Amino acid sequence: MSDERQEFSRRLAEAMRAKGYPPKPGVLLKLFNSHYEGRSVAFSTASKWLRGMALPEQDKLQVLAALLNVEPQVLRFGGRPRVGEARAEWSAGLGAQDRVMLDAFLSLPPAQRRLVRELVSTLAAVDEAKR
């Protein structure tokens, strides 16, 4: 086991605790697979991530980071983003109703999330065509 994998495992467990999740493979598995649009990961994969035996691929790292509200590079490599790399807080201008709607969207299964995205894209295109 490399130190790099062990450090990732520690950061992943810390991020899970910070969001109120116990750092257990079963919890990570359900959380991850309910939000990942690709092929589901196995229990053994989630376990390896948490035990420092494997690192997630980039697409999976992106999902983990979004779920745990951590920058992907910080989750993967540690530290803080360098100056100029910090992501702007896009949700700063959202009201309470929008935040509730986004939380509900994020809790939907992948197929339903895809439908909502298609609906929003269609509505935006219709609105743009009217201008």
Describe this structure in words.
The protein is mostly helical and 131 residues long. It is 64% helix and 0% strand. It is built from 7 helices and no strands. The protein has helices at 3-18, 25-33, 43-51, 58-68, 72-77, 96-107, 110-130. Helix 2 packs across helix 3. The longest helix has 21 residues, at 110-130. The protein is elongated and about 55 Å long.
How are the SSEs ordered, and which strands pair?
Elements: H1 3-18, H2 25-33, H3 43-51, H4 58-68, H5 72-77, H6 96-107, H7 110-130
Helix pairs in contact: 2-3
Distance N to C terminus: 58 Å
- Outline: elongated
Taken as a percent bin, the fraction of beta residues is: under 5%
Binned, the helix content reads: 55-70%
Number of helices: 7
Run of helices and strands: HHHHHHH
| Biggest pleated sheet | none
Tell me the structural class: mainly alpha
Secondary structure: number of strands: 0
Low-confidence stretches: none
Global Rg: 17 Å
